[in-house]
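User: Show me a protein chain along with its predicted structure.
Assistant: Here is one chain, sequence first, then structure tokens.
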Amino acid sequence: MQTNISKQYIDTAEGQEADRILRACVHCGFCTATCPTYQLLGDELDSPRGRIYLIKQMLEGNVVTRKTQLHLDRCLTCRACETTCPSGVEYGRLVDIGRELSESQLRRPHISRLIRYALRNIVPYPARFAALARLGQIFRPVMPAALRSKVPSLPEAGHWPTGSHARRMLVLQGCAQSVATPQTNSATARILDRLGIELIAADKAGCCGAVSHHLSAVDEGRDFVRRNIDAWWPHVEQGAEAIVVTASGCGTMVKDYGHLLRDDPAYAEKAETVSRLAQDISEVLREEDLSKLKVRASQVKVAFHSPCTLQHGQQLAGVVESILTGLGFTLTDVTDPHLCCGSAGTYSVLQPALSQQLLSNKLDALQKPGPDVIATANIGCQMHMSTRANVPVRHWIEVVDQAID
């Protein structure tokens, strides 16, 4: 694609990166075949190719309009288009740049700004998120059904092994996951303990920064990134061999720390190291001897939903499925497994109508074969699907943990 980036942007790091990405696009349209919003709406501007044109126009100096902002907002950032693209267009990074640019040029309506501010100032902070969840529990009986289903439960984390091992790994506790499903990381710690690995939750590490970053509060997102690096770094220096992430959305973000802080002289090298150490729990387990776990799973029928951030963001399609099958679980066939469930971080709040359509389609595909449980690998997907699923929705690591003798 030929570009003519305006002088306002061509000398900036973001403008140069966007120019490079835009020039890789060859207009082929393969991306439209796997784009969830294009499949629902049939509008070229709600496809990756259409949004790429909108971003190009902004960077070439055209005025940003509500229409431009609307179509960028409707993007799930699922990155299915990246998996399909034969030219290697880094669409996820391009749309982040486009959103940041449109945000700086066009002031949103008051209500929209307020909702986004609330999301950025509640979700990334476990204490605030937990307080809101507890309040929701109190008023849950009198809430409308649609709102009642969205109130998260507050389960106990469960036993965390206290034994020490020569092999040590860090774990990202996260924000919403640490409140809504703390048992996920406890189950991970128990499984790794059986494999001779000690899992460490570092004090002062928290939200990965994705909420702020994807809501165009880029500097705020980088502050979360630096805080996590500072919390992890002493353990990294002491030989922690990996940073385990059990929420695939967070994993995608942490693996991008090196890119996000590439121009920060104080953190660039550390951020690159952290990105290199970050691993989804499936990447850790595929390298281990899982016969040590003694799993009894032959009667459990599992429908696995592979989050977009796992299969497209981290390019780990099929890894969890292979682990579950190898452990003896029966996996159901899922129609269109590449499609998004509609959670997509804060998307289910900001684009509820589209999100619910995607959720309906996803649950139809997952539940049609009659599974005993729906398993997934991301807290957002898990919470979103749980609001309407007819069977339990669990993180797949919990399903494995529950099947161990």
